[in-house]
Amino acid sequence: MSADSIIAVSLLLPLIGAFGIALAGKSPNLREGVTLLTAAALLACVFQLLEPVLNGARPALVLLEPLPGLPIAFQVEPLGMLFALVASGLWIVNSIYSIGYMRDNGEENQTRFYLSFALAIAATLAIAFSANLLTLFLFYEVLTLITYPLVTHAGTSEARGGGRTYLAILMGTSIIFLLPAVIYVWHVAGTTDFRPGGILPDNLDTGTIVILLALFMFGIGKAALMPFHRWLPAAMVAPTPVSALLHAVAVVKAGVFSVVKVMMFIFGFDQLAGSTDWLAAIAGFTIVAASLVALSAVNLKRRLAYSTISQLSYIILAAAILAPLSMIGAALHIAAHALGKITLFFAAGAIYTASHKTEISELDGIGRRMPWTMAAFGIGALSMIGLPPAAGFVSKWYLVSGAMDQAHWFALAVVLLSTLLNAGYFMPIVYRAYLRPLTAEAEAHPHGEAPLPILLALGLTAAGTVALFFYPDVPLALARQMVNMP
Amino acid sequence: MSLSAHLPVLQVVLPLVSAPIAVLFRHGGFAAGIVTGGAWAAFATAIGLWLHVAEFGTISYHMGNWAPPWGIEYRVDRLTSFVLLLVSGTAAVVLPWSRASIDREIPEELHYLYYAMFGLCLAGLLGITVTGDAFNIFVFLEISSLATYVLIAMGRNRRALAAAYRYLIMGSIGATFIVIGIGFLYLMTGTLNLADMAVRLRAVENSRPVLVALAFLTVGISLKLALFPLHQWLPNAYTYAPSAVTAFLAATATKVSVYVLIRFYYSVFGESLVFEQLPLPQFMLALSLLAMFAASFIAIFQDNLKRLFAYSSVGQIGYITLGLSFGSLTGLTGSIVHLLNHGVAKAAIFLLIGGLVLGMTKPGTVTAEPSFDRLAGLSKRMPYTSFGIVIAGLSLIGVPGTAGFISKWHLILAALEQDQFWLVAAIVVSSLLAVAYVWRFVEVAYFTPPPEDSTSVQEAPLSLLVPAWLLVTATIWFGFDTTFSVGSASDAAQQLLKAAQ
């Protein structure tokens, strides 16, 4: 099979899987079998693309051309490859986890759940492989719409309210800011293709560049730059597997991925030089402010959500520094944060499944009853803070190196402060879980570890978080290729 | 002359004769057959005309071999053939669909009349489009309007009568304005042939009677196309008319009126008079913006689904007239392509609502109203209907991958070309209002538990679902393959602009 046709297959596979899931809706075991099989086949498929891409090939596929010069087209470049690997790899783990979670909590409408999930993965891969802005925008919107039923899954008025915020902010920002930006690029450049070095004409003045960049940065609401971050905590009403894969990996990473793509392949570093200070400032503000909110959050998932907002802005900050090393850090952080944060969400879901606890204050002594879960949680927390031996250390290392190269003291200060804040809101949880005694109320309600599929999934991602610290070769090679640093 | 040379006149004659034949036999089933046959023949004719015009250019057909400007001329150019396809195509889809629907919504003894009126209405709309004669436009306008009043009044709900009456009054005022405008033009030029009129108008361009004619025509046609705030007749007419009628009218009646407006502006008065010497574009821009915001905003708060989408139509017409107000190729292309894109999406929505009403109405009772409190949990019982409405609704919002996105792309591009950044903002912000009203349906249909006594509601029959889903598929199709839609629209726009200079 040629690399070009593998793109088509990897986009089709989740769709076929979704179809199979719908057909097998009556028999849960068969249905979950279809999900796992599709996910495994998809990962195998995406892996096929890795070697050609590492060797410098850029497989491409033009689907169709709705308007002259504006095709729906795909092209695999290193960053998209990395994103696709992360998303499809974690889909398998997440599916294992979902089986344990959804069954143990007796959730309804499970067929709709798995179906939407498969479609969301298809949209995510299409974003990762998109060859131009139009394609990216198309699947960006598709991803919003497909994940909406997952957010409102419970059907309660709280879930509907969360879904409303989710849709209003993501759709609103993308229609009001992103769409005009895309059309403006087409208007001045005559193309929307992603090309190394950017496609915008040289005669744009700085004011236009700044405004256009702002339209993109705020238009890509999935990157959760403040003040358009509220959808992410609102999305936490979804079942935990959704929060884990979609709102820690697929959807939010699609956001920061788009940010990096636009900055590198639409604007180009030369064009952006001197126009990104404000962006670094807002990203820095988002990092610190979200950390402060996380510090005061009493609900575990809410704390994780704000931690995600803060970590996403690391990537935006890294891109805004405009140094090759910090770009490598941005790319690595897409993978590193994905692994770490999915572990943390898995742990939160495991705690909920085993003990129905959602508040941090209830977690006293829970490490004794759920040692595996809390160990995984600890590793995820280390990665968030950026300490060895977790993957977060590697990406932060590159980010800091890039900032030093550019003598970007503001970025360094933000990273330092944020590291302290991260430690400030994650360590107390670990402390509570292991060192505090069980409360009297918890004593009265005994429970054990979470079901096996859940433990298996969070064990895998925790191991991955550590493995990425020791063996960052593949993501690093992809990231270096992205910035042409062999 | 071979039969194919007579296609322009057959376009009108075929549906026109089907109507009296239907009345002659007074039999519902027979009438259905003959009028549907007429509509399909008209659709085939329209396809033939479109192909012919695309290849050989404009057709000028001389009625009874009397050369224009003395005889009546039928004139088919790119825009004409495009609108003919839209109108006859919608009729060809809606008519077979309406069999099952009118069973519940119209008394059996009136079925033959329904088909006869439908045939007349179709013939009138096609006649307006195809003719190149100003007075002929008025005649066909009256034929289609009178038939429409009857069709609307056929709704089982007694409020349909009031709605039809209101439309009768407003429509007659509009028609009167139009005929006065045409009268002034005749006075100044001594001709009724549009092409001839355009030539002769050059000499008297800035005289007061010509300006008065322009004013009367603009207001009269704006009434018929429901330009905000002259839209008052539309919401009730759409809400209480039988579902099939609403679906047909929503996709065709206002669109043909837009066509007439474009025809008079570009082919008769000319670009310089309308767009350069008068503040008409600014005026139209203001009204379009009002429609986009006010009508869409009102739509959000409607409790009846049909009325909600009726107000949405008024808002969407605002996008069409907005495109006109730019006076540029991109704007005009966006306008023309939105005739099709909105027509298809709205027809699909009203057909699906028709199926929904059918599912909710028990035989022999008054037609049920699709109000929101009865739609809770609808997706469980009518999954195909609900999902179809959502897809077509996404097109109204302009989500990429749907036909509506293509229209919006052109409108925004047209605004950018003129550096009107605030207009870009207005277009995108008004889209959010569409999100709001479409999502009201989504929340109720998908995420609200159904009421206890809802078991009797069932999915619409296939005879309703297949034509409706044909249109739903078309809204997606025109979002990805625009060779027909944008291709025809931009050809038509180029032709118009070239002729208008």
The largest sheet of chain B, given as strand count, sense and whether it forms a barrel, is:
2 strands, antiparallel
Apparent shape of chain A:
globular
Oligomerization: heterodimer
The first-to-last residue Cα distance of chain A is 28 Å
Q: Output the strand order for the largest sheet of chain B.
A: 1-2
How many angstroms separate the termini of chain B? 35 Å
**How many structural units, i.e. domains of chain B?**
2
- Structural class of chain A, please? mainly alpha
How much strand of chain A? under 5%
Mean pLDDT of chain B: 88
Unreliable stretches of chain B: none
Q: Briefly note the structural class of the backbone of chain B.
A: mainly alpha
Percent range for β-strand residues of chain B: under 5%
Give the helix level of chain A as a range of percent: over 70%
User: What value does the Rg of chain A take, in angstroms?
Assistant: 21 Å
Q: Sheet bearing the most strands of chain A, described? A: 2 strands, antiparallel
**Radius of gyration from the alpha-carbon trace of chain B, in angstroms:** 22 Å
Number of strands of chain B: 2
What does this structure look like?
The complex is a heterodimer of chains A (486) and B (501). Chain A is mostly helical and 486 residues long. Chain A has a domain at 276-486. Helix content of chain A is 75%, strand content 3%. Chain A contains 20 helices and two strands. In chain A, helix 3 runs antiparallel to helix 4, helix 12 runs antiparallel to helix 17 (409-435) and helix 13 (324-355) packs antiparallel against helix 19. Chain A starts with a helix and ends with a helix. By secondary structure, chain B is an all-alpha fold. Chain B has two domains: 1-168 and 230-257, no CATH class; 279-501, no CATH class. Chain B has a two-stranded antiparallel ribbon with strand order 1-2. The longest helix of chain B has 32 residues, at 329-360. Chain B is globular, with a radius of gyration of 22 Å. The A-B interface holds A 64, 66-67, 72, 134, 137-138, 141-142, 145, 149, 152, 155, 159-160, 163-164, 167-168, 171-172, 175-176, 179-180, 183-184, 186-187 and B 394, 397-401, 406, 408-409, 412-413, 416-417, 424-425, 428-429, 431-432, 435, 439, 443, 446-449, 479-482, 486.
